[in-house]
Amino acid sequence: MPTSPSEEQGPYDLAVVGAGPAGLAAAVTAARLGLHVALVDAASRVGGQFYRQPAAGLHARRPEALHHSWSAFARRAAQLDVHTAAGRIRHLAEHHVWAVTGEAGQWAVHAARGPDGSGETVVVRARKVLLATGAYERQLPFPGWTLPGVVGADGAQALLKGALVLPGRRVVVAGSGPLLLAVAGSLAAAGATVPVVVEASGYGGYARRPGVLAANPGKLAEGAVHAAALVRHGIRVRNRSAVTDVHGTTRVEAVTVTRLDEEWRAVPGTGVRIPCDVLAVGHGLLPQVELATGVGCATRRTPDGAHALVVDARQRTTVPGLWSAGETGGVGGAALAFLEGELAARDIGRSGEGAASLARRRDRLRHFGEAMAAAHAPGPAWPEWLRDDTEVCRCEEVTASRVREAVNDLGARDARTVKLLTRAGMGWCQGRMCGPAVACLAGATASPDRRPLACPVALGALAELSDG
Amino acid sequence: MFTRRTFDVVVVGAGVVGAACAFYTSRSGLCVAVVDRGPVAGGTTGAGEGNLLVSDKQPGPELDLALLSTRLWRELAEEFPATFEYEAKGGLVVAAQQDGLAALRTFAATQAAAGVQCEDVPHLADVEPHLAPGLAGGVRYPQDAQVQPALAAAHLLRASGARLLLGEEVIGVLRTTDGAVRGVRTPRGDLLAPAVVNAAGTWGGQVAELAGTSLPVLPRRGFVLVTEPLPRVVRHKVYAADYVADVASGSAALQTSAVVEGTAAGPVLIGASRERVGFDRSLSTEVLGKLARQAQELFPVLRGVRVMRTYHGFRPYLPDHHPAIGADGRVPGLWHACGHEGAGVGLAPATGALIADGLAGSGGRLDRRAVDVRAFRPGRFGSGPPQPGRADAGAWPSAPGPTDRPPA
Amino acid sequence: MFRSRRSPLGLARATPGAPFDITLDGRPVPAFDGQSVAAALWADGVLSWRTTRGSGKPRGAFCAIGSCYDCLATINSRPNQRACLVPARPGDAVTTQKGHGRADLAV
C-alpha cells in the first residue's frame, strides 16, 4: 500500500468527521469508553455551524448570548479538552475531508489542510468511521438573488456567531423553516433592524401534527423562546409569502415581498416593496452526505425532498464500519445530534448501558424533525418566480431559460444531464446551491448528492498521493 | 398503456454513437427511433472528454475510421456552428527523453504515410509555453480536435428528427419465427422495425444477449480530473508518448498517462487512467494521485491549481480494442455500433455514416473504400449461436470474405 | 472600550485587542484577530470583492459557511480563497478578483 508522506499517526479506533454537536458527542463518548479517536473538522474550533464559537481572538465572555442551549455544548467541549489533553482524542482542526476510502477495519480519511483547505492533504487511518458532517442551507433561486447583499440566512447567523459582525443594518429574513426565526432573533439582538420575516409555508403545518409537538416539550420551549425574541424586537412574521424580486444595481436596496398560494405560486398584485440593505434567505437545511454516498451508503428521501443517510437504530449506515449521526441522517437539530452522536459512539464502543432511553428520545426528536421537514417542503410552483434571465447556477451563471432549453429541446430529464448540457452545477460549489432547483426544473426528483471530491484539492497535493 | 409504434430503424442508446447513427440514418431517408433507459448522454458519453484523436492510432482500419470521422466532425461543426464546442486545437505528443522522441518520430512517420498530418516540434515552448522545461521534443497533430460530447449527442439527436424515447429500457428484442429482428420491447410497448442498431456502448453486450447473440463488451474504467476554471493555459491536447502504449494495452492493471487539455468553459481536463475493474464505482485515490502527478510533470504551473471535481466513466472495450460496427450475420436485422473503448466520441460520425450506409443500401453516400470494415465485424469474436454461411452477409456485400484474424 | 449591548461585540461581551488593518484594493479595512476576511469586509460595509467570469457582475459572501464559493477572493495575490473561511492577518492585501483570477497564466 502506498504510504502518503503526510500520514497522521494511527490507525485510530475511530475517526469522527465533523465536530458539530453529533461529532463532538460521539468523540467524547467514544473516548470515555476507551477508544482512541481522531476528530477531524474543517473549522478552527469545534461546534459546527450550530454552535459556531466566536473566534478566540475576540475574547467573547458571553458567547451564549448568541446561542440556544449553550451549556449542552460547553459541557462536552470541556470534556473534549480533558480527553485531548490525555491523548485519547486528537482534534484535527482545519482539516477539510475530501474523501473517505477503504472498508471496515481499514478506512482512509483524506483531508486537505488549512483554513480553506488549500494546503497539503493528509490521510487519517481508522478502523471505524463516524460521519457527522451536518448540513448546509437549501437555496432556491429567484430574481435578484445574486445581488451582493443577498446572503444565506444560515450564513448571516454564522458570521454573527463566529466573527461577531452583521452584514448590514436593515435585514429582511426570508425563505422557509424554523431557522429563520432564530436568525431574525439573533440579528435583532445584535443590533440589526429586521423589518419582517417572510415565511413561504407558514407555521400552521405543525398544528396538524399535535402529537409530535406534545411529545417534544423541549422543542415547544425552543419555539417559544424564538417567538418571544421576535415580539421583544417588534419583528413581524409574514406567512405564505416570498421575496420575488430584489432591487438595487450593485447592492440590495429593497425587496419585493409577494403573497403565495398553497403551491407557492405568487399571487399577482400582492407585491410590497420593503427597503433593506440585506436579505438573509434560506429554505431549510440539506444533509451533507457526499462522503457517505462516495463509499456506497444508501440514502432515503425525507419529507421535504432531501436525501438523508439510511441509518438503523444504532446509527449504523448500510456500509459496515461506517456510522452516521446528526443531520446527515435527516435534519433534526442540535439536541437530536447530541443524542445520535452518543448512541453511535456507544454502539462503536460496545456499551449498551442506558442506550434504550436515549434511543426513545432520539426517535421522538426524529419524528419532530420529519414533521418540520414536511411542513416547510418547497411548494411545487416556486419555479414560476423565475424570469428567463434569472441565474439558476450562481457559479457558472446559467440562466433559467438555458436550463429550460436543455429540458424542453435537448432531452435532459434530470439534473445530471442539465449539468452536462448547460454547466449548471459544474462550478466551484459542485451544485450545492443550484442542485435542488435544477432537479426541479428538469422535472425530476433530486438524486442523492455524489461528489467524489467533497471539496477542491490542490493538484500538487493530490500528486503527493502518488509515489511516482 | 402498452403501445405499438413502427419505424424503419430503432437505435438502442442515446449516447454520441447512437446519436450519430440516428443522424446519418435519418438523413438517408429512413424513419428512426432512438430509445434509451436513461437520458441523453447518460452513459459513457457523459463521462467523456470529447477527444477526437488521430494521433494515438497506429496505421490500420481504426486510423482510417478516425480520419474519416475527423472530416465528418469538421463538416458537422460547420453545419451546426457554436453548438457543441468543436475546437480544432490539435494534439501535441511529447517525449521526455531522446530515445522516446526517436520512437515517437518513427511512429509518426508511419502515421504520416497513412494520411495523418504530423509536424515535428523541436521547440515545445513555442507552441505550448507552460510545458515543463527539459522535455526532449514532440510531434504536433493538427487534425486532433475536441467537442463537448453531451452537447454533440444532444444536438445530433435533435437535428436527426428521430423519435427520442428516453427513460425507456429495452427489455427484449423481438424476432420473427425465422430469427430475424422485428423490433424491441420496452415496458411501455413495442417499437417495431426491421432493423435494430445496438449503440448501447458499455452495455452493448447486454443488448446483444437480448437479441440472442453475444458481443464481449467489457468496461474499462477511467477517471478524469477537472480543475478550477482557468484562462487558456494549455493550447493543445497534450500527452506523453506512453499514452499510445496504454491505449493498446490488454492488461487489466492500472495504466495512467495523463492527457491534459483546456476547455472552452475554462477548466483543464486531465484524463485517461485505464483499468479493468468491472463496474466498480469507488474512488481510487491512487489513480487520482498518478494523474495529478503526471499532469504536474507536464505542466508544473498546475501544481497550485485546485482540482474541483473528478468523475469516472466505463469505456466499452472489446478484446481486440476495435469497435463492432456493422450487421450481425448471426441475427438478421441486428446491427452493432458499440465497443469504441475511449474513442467513441471521435469515431461516432464515421460509425453512424457506415451504419446508415449499410442500412440504406446503395442509397448511402459514403465511399466505402475509405475504410476496411472487416476489422469491425461484430461476428469476429466467434461466440454465440453460429449460422454458417450467413456470417456477416448483407452488411457490406462488396466486402471480401470474412476473416477472424484480429488486426495487427 | 464601551460597546452598546445592541452590537454583536457588545452582546457577546467581546473584548478583542486593537483592530489591525487589511486592505481592499489599497483602501484600509479594520479587522479583529480571528475574524475572517469576509467578516472584516462585511463589518466595513463591503458586500462584494470579485466579479464573475461570464458577465462581470459583483459577488461577495453568500452562504458564508464555505459551501457556495461565491466569496472567492484574491488575497496577497493568491486567487480563489474562500474569504468566509480564511482568517484576516495584519497587512493582508485583498484585491477585487476578476473572473477566474488567473489571468496571469493565460498563453
TrEMBL record, chain A:
Keyword Oxidoreductase belongs to the record: yes
Domain FAD/NAD(P)-binding intervals: 12-327
Keywords for the protein's UniProt record, in alphabetical order: Oxidoreductase
Domain BFD-like [2Fe-2S]-binding: 392-439
UniProt KW Transcription keyword: no
One Gene Ontology molecular-function label: oxidoreductase activity
PANTHER family, per the entry: ANAEROBIC GLYCEROL-3-PHOSPHATE DEHYDROGENASE SUBUNIT B
Protein known as: NADPH-dependent 2,4-dienoyl-CoA reductase/sulfur reductase-like enzyme
TrEMBL record, chain B:
Pfam families: DAO
Transmembrane regions: 7-25
GO terms assigned for molecular function: oxidoreductase activity
One GO cellular component term: cytoplasm
Superkingdom of this protein's organism: Bacteria
Record keywords, A-Z: Membrane, Oxidoreductase, Transmembrane, Transmembrane helix
SUPFAM superfamilies referenced in this protein's UniProt entry, alphabetically: FAD-linked reductases, C-terminal domain, FAD/NAD(P)-binding domain
Gene3D superfamilies linked: D-Amino Acid Oxidase, subunit A, domain 2, FAD/NAD(P)-binding domain
Composition-biased stretches (Pro residues): 399-408
Protein name per Swiss-Prot or TrEMBL: Glycine/D-amino acid oxidase-like deaminating enzyme
UniProtKB/TrEMBL annotation, chain C:
Classification via InterPro entries: 2Fe-2S-bd_N (IPR042204), 2Fe-2S_ferredoxin-like_sf (IPR036010)
Membrane spanning residue stretches: none
SUPFAM superfamilies (alphabetical): 2Fe-2S ferredoxin-like
GO molecular function terms listed in the Swiss-Prot or TrEMBL record: iron-sulfur cluster binding; oxidoreductase activity
Keywords from the named record: Oxidoreductase
Name the UniProt record assigns to this protein: (2Fe-2S)-binding protein
Organism, as annotated: Streptomyces candidus
